[in-house]
Amino acid sequence: MLEFINVIIAGVASFAFGAVWYMSLAEPWKAASGIAVDENGDPLNQSDPVPYITSFVASLLVAGMMRHAFVTGGVETFWAGLVSGFGVGAFLVSPWIATFYAFNSKPLLLVAIDCGYAIIGCTIIGAVLMLF
Known about the structure:
- By secondary structure, this protein is mostly helical.
- It has helices at about 1-25, 25-35, 50-75, 80-105, 110-130.
- Helix 1 runs antiparallel to helix 5 (about 110-130).
- It is globular and about 50 Å long.
């Protein structure tokens, strides 16, 4: 049971970091993403719950899979979790994001912002998974 709670806490931590990350980088992200905005500069889909629900569920799924990989791979300490989480974000998730964006001709700034979230978010998940 504790394992499930740990996964939930790790997913929530990554999701919460994402909120801070994207609020801090809202202006450059909006410009780079080309998202439609209203007269106040706010994204038109800002009140749509689907992206937020999708992001939350994705954070839980990533945390769950990382826990599984850590258990089977023998990751047992905070620092090993931190480094392994960084590795997942930097060398598994980010290359896929960069590939998708390259084929869609997305700006390098958007790649950097979204890959930055993936790297730091996975690092947070890895660290939190090893706290309990």
